[in-house]
Each structure stands twice: as C-alpha cells, then as structure tokens.
Design goal:
The protein is of the alpha/beta class. Helices cover 43% and strands 12% of the residues. Helix 34 packs across helix 36. The structure holds flavin-adenine dinucleotide and iron/sulfur cluster (SF4) (2 copies).
C-alpha cells in the first residue's frame, strides 16, 4: 500500500490496482521503475513520478483502464506526445499513453470535410492520410511531427496556422468523452431540442448538461465580460462556448481542459482544403519591437495565413550553433524579421496578395529589407528556422540553461510592441539577460525561454516573483497568460490575476461537475499545485556526486549530468519520419525507447529526488534495458535540437554498469571483433567454413550472443593489408603534399577489401601517393559501442603511436568506413579531450569525398558514370561527418543520386547482430531502406558507404548488393559498369560452398562423438 502524495492524501493499494488493470485492460500495464521513470516529466519545468503506465491496445481498453482507476480512486493522466510545456502532462497518476496503438483515422467524409480520429493519432500522420482528399486539419503546432490530436484537444493547441484556421477548439465538431465516473457520450453543439431530450432521458449525462446550463446561466455576465477579446486566449476553461450565442457547444467548452475534466476517446474534426498555392514575404526590421509595432499595419492591409516573428538573439544563436544557416541566408537585411505567408487557390492570387501588401506598406520586392518567395521548399526552409525556436534557445552555446514558464503569453496584436518593450524591461529588472523573443506575432503570441535559476531557493523565489509580475503585465494589456500552450501548473495559480476570483470559482464548479473527486490530472489548472513546487530541479535537488566519467564532455562543462540535461523534452525524437532520430522509437512506439525516455531515465539515475524510481545508479537494470535498444546510431546527436548524444551516454553507462563484472557474451564476441578479424588471418577459409557449418554455427552464435537469424560476414581470403604488403608499394614521404594515409578499418580490411583497393585506385588516379599503416591499428569503435572504454582507450593510444609520423607531418588521413571516421572526428576528442595528437588526428581525418574534393591535385575530375543511384547514408555520416561532399562528388561523377531520407538501416554495427535485436533491426530496415532498395531500377547503383548498411541490404532479401562510393568510382575508371545490377562487378568474398560446411559439421560431430566415447570409457575405468 502506498499513499498518493498530491492533493488530498489517500491510501491507494498500488499492487491491487496494477493487478486489476492487468486483468481488465487489453494493453500493456507497466508499473516497473523503468516505465515510470521514462514518464516523469513532459516538456516543462515540472516532474512528478507516475504511479504506473497503461498503454491500451484499443480505445475501449483505454476506457476500461479509466474504469479500473475510478474503482480504486487512482488519479488519472491521459498522454499524447507529452510535449506540454506548462506541466499539465506530468502527474503522480496512472498515465494512459494513447499514442502507441490508439492512432486510427476512423473515418473521413470529404464532402462534409470532417473526420473522426482516435486520440493518439499524430497530426502529421493525420494530414498525410488526409492528403489524398486534399484536406488537412487546420491548426499546426510546431510539434506537428509528434503531437497527438488528443494532446492538441487537451491543450487547445494553435501554432502558426491558427492565424488562418483558429485554435483547435474552432475545428472540433464533436467529442466522444468519458468521465471519471464512467459516463461515455458524444458531445458537441447542443440545440434546445437536443438539450431537452438529453435532460429528459435522465441519468448522469442529464446531470452534466443541467449543471453546465446552470453554471453558464449563473455566471453569464462574468463569462461575457471577463474573457479578454484577443485571438490567442488559451488560459482558463472555455466557458464562453457554453453561452447560448455560441451554441452551447459542450465539446468546445471541454477543449483545452488539459485532461482535468474528461478523457477524450474520439474526436470529430472539421477539416480545411490544402491550399493550392502559397507565397511568403520576409520583412526585415531594426529590432523585434519595431517588427511588433508593424503587425497591426500589416493586418489592416492583408489577410495572411500566418505572421511569424524571429529576433536578432535567435539569429545570433543559430549562427553560433551553426544551425539553420541555410534558412537565415534567405532572410533579407535587418536584425528581426516578420514572415508573412499567403495561401490561395492560384499562384497569381497569392503573389498578388504579397505585392499588394508591399505596395500598401510603401516597400518593394527589390528593397534590401524584403525577401519574396513563391517556392514552397524555400518557404518551408525559412519557416523551419522559426519553428526551431525552442530548441535553438534552450541550450545556447554559452551553456546557459533557459526554461519555459513565460513562454507563450499573448496580447491583442495592436498592443504587441508596447507589451514587448515592457516585457524586456521586466527581464532587465529581474536580471534575465537578453532572452530571445519570437512567435506568432500576427496573433500577438510571444515565445521566449528565460534563464531562470531553478536550483536555489533564491532563484526559485525570483522565478515566482517574475511570473507574478509578468502575469500582471500581460493582464494590464488585456492579454492572456497562455496564448497556446495551456495553463498546467506553470500558470494555474496565476489564473485569478487574469480572470478574477468569480470566474476562477466558476472553473472550480466546472471541475466539480465533471470530476467531483479531483482525480483527473489533479493539481493542474484548477486547485493547482504551486507554480514553484514539483520542479524538475528545485532547491532540494541533490544529484549524486559525479563519478569519474570516461568521456570528457567538453561541450557540457565536463559534466555527464549537464550532458544528459540537454534533453528539454521537445519530443522531436518521437517523430515518425525524416532524418534518423530515433529508429528504436519509430519501430517500438515506446517512450522508453525514444531518446527522451532514455534521457529521463539517466536523469533519474543520477538521484537528486528522493522519490526517483531508479535507485541503483550505474548498476540500474532499468536504465540498461532502456539503453539496450539504442542503436548508438547518433541520430540524436544531429537531429535533436539540443544535441543529446545518446550513443555516447550509452557507452558511458555500459562502461560503469559492467565495471568489474562479466559482460554479455556479445560484448566479447562483437566488441572484440577487430582482434578476431586479425586472428582469422591464420586460416580465413577454415574460419568461414566453421562459422557456417550447421550445428557449429548455431552453437557458436548462441555462445557468442549473436542473433541466430544472422549470417556471419565472410572473411576475405586475402585482407586489404595483406594485398597492400604483397604489392610492395614504396612508402611515400609523410611530408610530401601528395601523400595521403588510407585508414585500414576492420571492415574494409577483412570483409570488403574491394572497398579499400578501389580507394587506392581512385586516390592514385587523383594524383595522391597512398600510404597504409601495416601495423595493427584500430579506431576502437566496437569497444566504444559496447562500453569497453578502457580497452578502447588502450587501442587508441597504440594507434596514435603508430600514426605519429603522419600526425607530426600533418599528412591527411582518409577514412572509408563512416563509423570509424566518426570515432576520430567525434568520440575520440570526447574520450581524450586533452591529448594534442587526438586534436591533430581529428583535424587531419577526412572522408573519401572530402579529400577528393578539397585536396585532389588541381584539374582532377572524377570519372563520369551517368547512372542513377539509390543512396543510403550511414547514420554517422548523417550525424557527424555530413554528406554534402559526397553529394557534390556524386554530382561531378554524373551519379544521379536519390539520397534516401529513410533513417537508420537498423543494423548499426554490432546492434543488429546481437541476440534479441534481430526483429527490431529488421523492422527498422523494413520501414525504410529495404523497400526503397527493392524499388530501385535494376540498372541503378545501390550505394552505401557503411559496412552495416551494405550488410543489411545484402541480408535483407532485396536481391541487391550495395557498393561503396570508392568502388563505384573505381568501376568507372575501368570503363562502363554492367548495365544491370552494377554491383556484380565488385569483388566480394564468397561464402564456402554449403556442402563443405555440412561436411565440416559432420566431421566435427563425429570428432565430438568420438571424444565423448573416449571420455566416457576413461571415466568408467
Ligand atoms: C518545441 C515546442 C514547440 C511547441 N509549439 C507549439 C505551437 O506552435 N503551438 C501550440 O499550440 N503548442 C505548441 N507546443 C506545446 C505542445 O506541443 C502542443 O500543445 C501539442 O499540441 C500538445 O500535444 P501532445 O500530444 O504533446 O500533448 P500532451 O502533452 O501529451 O498532452 C496535452 C494535454 O492534453 C491532455 N490529453 C492528452 N490526451 C488526452 C485525451 N485523450 N483525453 C483528455 N486529455 C488528453 C494531457 O493530459 C495534457 O494535459 C510546443 C511545445 C514544444 C515543446
Ligand atoms: S532528446 Fe532532444 S528531441 Fe528528444 S525530447 Fe529531448 S531535447 Fe527533444
Ligand atoms: S543513438 Fe540513435 S537509437 Fe540511440 S537514442 Fe539516439 S537516435 Fe535513438
């Protein structure tokens, strides 16, 4: 038995609750520490440990979970994408996560332009499914790639497009709701006849309707007068929707109630046509207040679909972070900008609207402060910079943390300039230096993140005082505390300042009507927890002392804790397409297997709060299990707006977790692969035969912790280094500017030596003199990815010694395998940040394409192929080395590259080979790269520089083999490649004939039998 901490303390038999949920709910019921730890917070400053998590398989199962909670009196919290910023999506409650299974588009009526959805459907996914009907859901928060419709309804979400389409409430027709006490019903606009019918039928539904009518009648005058007139009022319950003039719209009144009144089971939504044409004007201003001042004038002259703003501070941060530079380069002169978008039926119409506005403003397309675009890709590019605001400002390069709290206040657009000037003054008064200001200025909504100090009592008190002053300020301008994110805990306590006691009293009455026991998301909006309680940090946050960490974390003040705290909860790692992050989430749909879930668990692991569900530090099995499915693809390192690098944190964790203990077999089998590969030189053919011999191979894989479904890669009869030695090429002078060291990585040396031989050919053709280290060298990748960091460091030190002459001479080194190159560019400088040779090596290490483009002697042109190619970028190319040079080299070589944006191949080094990972590995591959390769024309090249990607493509039933770019260029040097399946021309080691493997297996069986017989006889005697 344990007591619920929040609100009225009540005894709750958690074990019995869990058992009852398991019994009644078709779904996953998780009360384990790992699941609870993954859900401790949303995107806000707040943190509350859930009682348990339920992931219902159907909407009815979700309803069953609510019924069980009601039976036990357990607090309840519905969750969508968990991107809320006000603390409304964290609670000590049973969390129902609707996103994994309840995400169907139930029906579409294209004529009526409506649809019915389940609550877990993600907005982008909904719009993708609506696209064939040329329809979409109008409101579009910046989190559109991962926020769910249930969450949008919960928050009454808006976003940039609200200028044209209004808030979510404006697009909700009807909701199917479930009250805590079990009333399940559809609600919407209610005519007098319907009202009479419902109330005549009696029961709880009638009681609710009568109560609503009574409440709106009694508070009629306050409701009519007490809500400010502005487009972005999201704070408070939507009582005006209950007014007769608004159709007694019960559904809209419940939108924005943040899970505190009802659970939404289905929603019927109004849809809008996808605009046929769009155009955008970007207008430059000397500062953000001047931009705000101009908004009313713009609105006088046009009806845009959005007016977004971005300031000089944000632009400065983008420059410092090297992010969104392409977007910024499209912006005109100025230090702050308004992005004005027009939509319409024809391009002429939207172009005309843009030019009419310019004329009315006395500005011209040719002015330096004006940029005009009617290219949808360019517009999207420009808007991306604005959408990225929170991520860019959350962890600026100066290391200063910024926080939500006053991140979406809104005023009437006419007041915006004056409000911003006062807000800036308030920042100065409180010592909050220069927060960026941006947002949906066309509707007066201002975003910002503020460097609150949330670790000391004084800092927390200042945070509170600032919020109180800011609330009074916004109210003095007739504004709203929240213009789109909702109240939650951050603003719940401040609502009386905006609405007064009587209206807040009415909110309490509404809450009491639907949820008299205060079990629905308690402590939020109504009877709220204090805005400075339950903080993620807070003055009582006492994380454990940091042990000696293996990596240096140079960008995080050398602190693993600070590195983990990069995750501010934006949730991009829950997106379903584009980029790489996060393949394990995309395949499992589970919070725990998203980058964010893992970051949460690592945060909990560091202690800090007495109620943390993770109690055993580095030895935690919960954290280990959450990290187990991390592919170490580094997708997050590049795709997470705050640069969370989970692959590094995983390696750090594994290193501590297994310190002084036996590791999983795969860590020895796959982690030590470079050593086994070297040993294979004794008899590569025999090793290949043994690895494939029936019985022996099965037993071997079992012992090695390798997935039984995987075929071992074939060792080459002659390794690249053996070939190189046999060639006996003279060693070039390291100081000769034509000399280049070719890095003999394990994969290009022992498994696909054709890659390295091809590279020698192309580099020689380009005028380089190639040197190859023939002593054993290694980047340590496999030891790093399995967390054997001491061994990795030893291997790397030996490698640095071997490379010393070239490092001293400044000789460029070229890598062929992207993951090895990424080690030298990224992991090694983090592992040994103080070593000067490491810095030299990182600077001297080039990718194959970079070297040829940037350093090939003048006049060299790559051979021209004139071929289409399907290209799979390795995750570490995507995240660390980048692919621009490869694209350019391919362009120059006449390769018409279709560079896939299908994410990780799913194999990711040792990951896909490890027992227990095969299914996930294949699911990831089947959701992206494999179907794309199957769809490639037979004549097309299939290109993949990563050994893992090539292996996955070859073992994934595509009927295709993949080539490294070096192999493709080498083929072109020899003349035209084969017309079909050009990969045939590349030499790959062939597996031994199966008859031989079977013979070996039989021989081994006979030998084993004989040995057993002999042993038995001996024992008998
Ligand atoms: C970087 C960033 C940018 C953002 N930009 C915008 C923006 O442009 N515009 C905007 O409006 N917001 C924005 N937000 C806030 C947030 O992303 C949106 O409000 C989003 O729509 C919330 O969706 P979600 O699925 O994440 O909701 P969640 O956070 O999961 O839930 C939101 C609320 O809805 C409740 N809820 C969820 N499902 C149900 C259900 N089935 N029944 C009842 N209640 C339910 C929850 O309990 C919670 O109170 C942003 C947030 C971040 C982090
Ligand atoms: S890992 Fe990055 S993208 Fe994911 S929630 Fe955290 S900050 Fe956002
Ligand atoms: S490294 Fe890859 S799998 Fe791991 S959390 Fe980051 S994106 Fe996800």
């Amino acid at each position: 038995m344990s007591a619920i901490e929040d609100g009225e303390a009540r005894e709750l038999d958690v074990e019995a609750l869990e058992a009852a949920l398991r019994e009644a709910v078709d779904g996953e019921v998780r009360f384990d520490a790992g699941s609870r730890g993954a859900y401790v917070t949303d995107g806000s400053n707040y943190r509350q440990v859930p009682i348990g998590v339920v992931v219902p398989r159907t909407v009815d199962a979700g309803a069953a979970a609510v019924a069980v909670c009601a039976r036990f009196g357990a607090p309840l919290l519905s969750r969508g994408g968990g991107t809320s910023l006000g603390g409304q999506c964290t609670n000590t409650a049973v969390v129902v996560d609707w996103t994994k299974y309840c995400h169907q588009l139930v029906s579409v009526d294209p004529e009526a332009r409506t649809c019915v959805v389940e609550p877990g459907i993600v907005l982008d996914e909904l719009n993708r499914q609506l696209a064939p009907h040329h329809l979409m859901f109008g409101p579009k928060p910046s989190t559109h790639s991962h926020c769910a419709l249930g969450g949008m309804i919960g928050n009454n979400s808006c976003g940039a497009s609200a200028q044209a389409y209004g808030k979510t409430a404006d697009s909700v027709r009807r909701l199917e709701i479930l009250t805590y006490d079990g009333t399940r019903t559809w609600v919407g606009a209610t005519s007098t006849e319907q009202y009479d019918e419902i109330t005549a039928a009696g029961g709880r539904r009638a009681e609710l309707y009568r109560g609503l009518r009574d409440l709106s009648d009694r508070h009629l005058a306050d409701i009519r007068r007490g809500y400010p007139e502005l487009p972005r009022r999201v704070s408070g319950y939507n009582l005006p929707d209950l007014l007769p003039e608004n159709g007694f719209h019960v559904a809209r009144a419940l939108v924005g109630s943040e899970g505190t009144l009802v659970t939404v089971l289905h929603a019927e939504l109004d849809l809008v046509p996808v605009p046929a044409a769009q155009a955008m004007l970007v207008l430059g201003y000397p500062d953000i207040c001047a931009a705000a001042d101009d908004v009313p004038r713009l609105l006088e002259h046009c009806r845009p679909t959005q007016i977004e703003a971005l300031d000089d501070r944000m632009a400065q941060l983008m420059h410092e972070e090297g992010a969104y530079l392409e977007s910024l380069s499209s912006f005109p002169e100025g230090s702050s900008w308004l992005l004005v978008q027009f939509s319409g039926d024809t391009q002429e119409e939207v172009d005309r609207q843009s030019h009419d506005l310019l004329r009315a403003l006395g500005r011209d397309e040719r002015d330096g402060t004006v940029a005009f675009s009617d290219d949808p890709d360019r517009e999207e590019q420009m808007l991306k910079a604005r959408e990225a605001g929170l991520g860019v400002t959350a962890r600026p390069p100066d290391g200063r943390e910024t926080w939500e709290g006053w991140e979406d206040s809104a005023v009437p657009p006419q007041q915006l300039g004056a409000y911003l000037r006062d807000l800036k003054k308030l920042f100065t008064d409180f010592g909050y230096d220069h927060p960026s200001l941006y947002g949906h200025f066309g509707q007066g909504c201002v975003h910002t993140r503020i460097p609150f100090q949330l670790r000391t009592a004084e800092g927390v008190a200042t945070f509170r005082s600032f919020l109180e002053h800011a609330a009074d300020l916004v109210v003095s301008y007739g504004g709203s505390l929240s213009g789109e994110h909702g109240d939650g805990q951050a603003r719940g306590e401040l609502l009386t300042r905006m609405f007064g006691e009587r209206l807040v009293g009415a909110f309490g009455e509404l809450k009491a009507l639907f949820d008299p026991g205060d079990r629905m998301n308690p402590g939020k909006v109504v009877a709220p927890n204090r805005l400075d309680s339950h903080l993620r940090l807070g003055a009582d946050w006492r994380p454990r002392d940091e042990d000696d960490t293996r990596f240096g974390y140079p960008d995080d003040e050398h602190s693993f804790r600070r590195a983990v705290m990069r995750c501010v909860g934006i949730g991009n790692c829950r997106s379903h397409e584009g980029g790489v992050m996060c393949p394990s989430y995309r395949a499992t749909g589970e919070e725990e297997h998203s980058t964010r879930g893992r970051a949460r668990l690592l945060f909990e692991m560091m202690g800090g709060h007495a109620d943390s569900p993770v109690t055993d530090g580095w030895r935690s099995t919960e954290v280990r299990d959450a990290l187990d499915l991390c592919l170490a693809c580094k997708g997050c390192k590049s795709d997470c707006p705050t640069g969370v690098d989970m692959a590094t944190y995983k390696a750090e964790f594994l290193s501590h977790h297994y310190q002084g203990r036996l590791r999983p077999a795969a860590h020895y089998a796959l982690g030590w692969l470079p050593l086994w590969a070297r040993l294979s030189r004794v008899a590569p053919g025999a090793v290949n035969t043994l690895l494939r011999a029936p019985g022996i191979s099965t037993l071997g894989k079992k012992l090695a912790g390798v997935a039984p479904q995987r075929d071992a890669p074939v060792f080459a009869e002659e390794s690249f280094v053996q070939w190189w030695r046999r060639r006996g090429a003279p060693e070039p002078d390291p100081a000769d500017p034509r000399t280049v060291v070719l890095w003999p990585d394990t994969f290009s040396t022992y498994f696909h030596p054709s890659v390295a031989r091809s590279a020698v050919k192309v580099l020689t053709d380009a005028g380089f003199q190639v040197a190859v280290p023939t002593d054993a060298v290694c980047c340590g990748l496999t030891w790093i990815s399995t967390g054997q960091l001491d061994t990795a460091a030893k291997v790397l030190r030996r490698t640095l010694t071997t490379l010393r002459p070239w490092l001293e001479a400044g000789t460029p080194i070229v890598g062929l395998e992207p993951s090895c190159t990424a080690v030298f560019r990224s992991d090694l400088p983090e592992l040994m940040p103080k070593d000067e040779d490491v810095k030299r090596l990182a600077g001297q290490f080039h990718t194959f394409a970079e070297l040829l483009l940037q350093r090939a002697p003048d006049g060299w042109r790559p051979p021209v192929l004139n071929r289409a190619a399907t290209v799979q970028t390795h995750c570490h190319q995507h995240a660390v080395t980048k692919f621009d040079a490869d694209r350019e080299l391919m362009r120059r070589a006449g390769i018409h590259a279709d560079v896939l944006d299908e994410g990780c191949c799913g194999l990711a080094g040792n990951f896909g080979f490890e027992a227990g990972h095969h299914q996930l590995s294949m699911d990831i591959a089947e959701s992206g790269v494999l179907p794309a390769v199957r769809g490639a024309a037979p004549s097309a090249l299939v290109l993949a520089d990563g050994f893992s990607c090539r292996t996955q493509i070859e073992q994934g039933g595509t009927g295709r083999g993949a080539l490294h770019l070096a192999e493709v260029l080498a083929l072109a040097l020899d003349g035209p490649a084969p017309a079909d399946h050009p990969e045939k021309a590349a030499a790959r080691p062939a597996p031994p004939p199966s008859a031989v493997s079977r013979l070996v297996a039989a021989g081994a069986a006979v030998a084993a039998g004989a040995a057993c017989y002999a042993l038995t006889r001996r024992l008998r005697h």
